[in-house]
C-alpha cells in the first residue's frame, strides 16, 4: 500500500500541500497512505461512511461533527487535498511560521483559524452563531459519553 501511495501522489502535489498545510514530506506521504486505505471505493475521495469506519471517530461523542468538518457545505466527498487542509487545523501552533514569510496568508493551524474551525464544529446550522440548542446538543453528547464511561469502569 505504501508504494501505491507514493506512486499516485506527484512530487509537485506534495510540495503544494506542504506550502498550504505545513506538513512535512514524510507526513504527507504517510497520510496519503492512510487516506488511500480509508478510500474503500478506490475513487480518490472519502465519503462520510469512510470516516465512520475509523474507530476513534465512531466512539467520539463529537465524531459526527468532526466528520462534517471535512465536507464543504453540500459536498458528500472529500479529496486528498481537502482532507489535508482540514487535518492542518489539528497541527500544533508554531509561533515562528508567520514570521518566515510576512506576506504569506495566515497558516491553517494559526490560533485564529483553529478558533474558527472549533467554532464551526458547534455551529451546526452555519449561521455564524452558536445557539443555546446547539451548545446543549454538544453538552448532552459529552454527558452521555461520560455516563457510559463511568458505567463501563464499574
UniProtKB/TrEMBL annotation:
Task: Name its cellular compartments.
Answer: Cell membrane; Cytoplasm; Nucleus
Please report the stretch or stretches of sequence annotated as the EF-hand domain.
26-61, 110-145
GO CC annotation terms, alphabetical: cytoplasm; nucleus; plasma membrane
User: Keyword set for this entry?
Assistant: Calcium, Cell membrane, Cytoplasm, Lipoprotein, Membrane, Metal-binding, Myristate, Nucleus, Phosphoprotein, Protein transport, Repeat, Transport
Q: Which family does it belong to?
A: Belongs to the calcineurin regulatory subunit family. CHP subfamily.
PANTHER family given for it? EG:114D9.1 PROTEIN-RELATED
Protein name from the UniProt record? Calcineurin-like EF-hand protein 1
Which GO biological process annotations does it have? protein transport
Keyword presence, Cell membrane: yes
* PROSITE patterns per UniProt: EF_HAND_1, EF_HAND_2
Q: Which organism is it from?
A: Amphiprion percula
Identify one Pfam family in the record.
Answer: EF-hand_6
Q: What is its main location?
A: membrane
Q: Name one GO molecular function term.
A: calcium ion binding
